[in-house]
Fold this sequence. Notes:
Blueprint: H1 2-28, H2 33-38, H3 44-53, H4 60-72, H5 86-120, H6 126-138, H7 141-155, H8 178-184, H9 188-225, H10 228-235, H11 240-277, H12 283-292, H13 296-324
Helix pairs in contact: 1-13, 5-9, 5-11, 6-9, 7-9, 8-9, 9-11, 10-11, 11-12, 11-13, 12-13
Organism: Streptomyces milbemycinicus
Protein name: ABC transporter permease
Domain ABC transmembrane type-1: 94-321
Amino acid sequence: MKFVLRRVAATAGVLLALTVALFALQEMSGVDPAKAYVGANASPATVDAARARLGLDEPLVPRYLHYLSGLLHGDLQNSLRTRTPVASDLADVLPASLELAGCVMLVAVLLGTVFAYLTAMRRRGSAVLRGVLFAGAAAPSFLLGMVALLVFYGHLGWLPSGGRTSFRDAPTGPTGFLLLDTLLAGRFDVFGDAATHLVLPALCAAIAPAVAIGRVLADGLTANLEADHARTARAAGLTERAVLLRHAVRNSLGPALSMVGIQAGALLAGLVVVEKIFDWPGVGSYLDSSVAAADLPGITGVALLLGVVYVAVNAVVDVLQVLADRRLALV
């Protein structure tokens, strides 16, 4: 419990520092939100009125405190592009990104586990799998996405090119997660179509995290399989599989969980390019549109969201590591 309380306090401190950094970046950006709100051709009087309405004429410290108070109440300011609250905009696009991110992490963990198992056990075919994954991880995500589109959509015609579904009457609620909503509505045809739309973006985004997770887990498994306690277990008559499952896996989970947390926390930010290539209507597409329109509230809202997700995921992973090895709570 003391470890959890320390971790929560550290998380709160990091998030507070993040709000200071985002507020400072808005101030130093050189973009006048009032002018962006009313348009470049607006008169000076109109710009001044907009600046007063947005609270931009107040001193720096009161403006930051007002900004922080709004964040604590879920107010991420209004988008200069959509003229609606950024929190509302993100609530509309976040489920699509979370659905894609969940599929990416599932594929990454499965591929990484297979990679680690084949490497640690020196199974036949492990070199081929390592070569394919390393080649995919070395390629930039935009290049990997374009090659996947050319091969699997353009040449073979096996998979769709982008979007979440081809159905115009696909369910839009109640959760916003299309796969779950289609099951709740009994639309199994849309479920299958939505699943095929997930394949290409999920695979393209999962290869790099899979290699990172797999390498850490493989190193841990290899070291534990060569340790003295593993040799003793073999001498006692345990099979190699039993030694792996009973003695190597648990001792290797800590570093692997840490890597899963790092990859999961950074995943939403990494999906920006993938969402753009595959026309995925998520946070990445929203950020791309906000950058093009110099929409500072939209940009900082996305940055704050990504920061909160990253810090929260790593805090949860730290707690899971302590549950796997209680000695870490003393560090």
